[in-house]
Amino acid sequence: MHTSDSTQDASNTPVAVSSAPETAGEISEPEIFENAYQVSIDYVDKHKILEIFQEITEKLVYHKPDDPLQFILLEVQSMIDARQAETETISEENKDV
């Protein structure tokens, strides 16, 4: 697969064009890549990455631990545990319905 300069949309996002001949059962439309910057922004928003880092950073500068990496690791693990507990609670509530 190669990227053709002649097959770009208005945002200059390259469109992948297959150079291999089509065979039975393959999709004939070219694969279009989304704007990488927007995909990144969407990911950060969807998973609340900035909020996670902000919360950890606030706690880090407040507590000023001697081992910041260990502190960060424990905070992340605490967030994971809280998310799992919330998921289990929701799952249990749905079983009762």
UniProtKB/TrEMBL annotation:
Alphabetized CDD domains for the sequence: DD_TEX55
InterPro entries to which the protein is assigned, alphabetical: Tex55, TEX55_DD
Feature: compositional bias, Polar residues: 1-16
Region (Disordered): 1-29
Full protein name: Uncharacterized protein
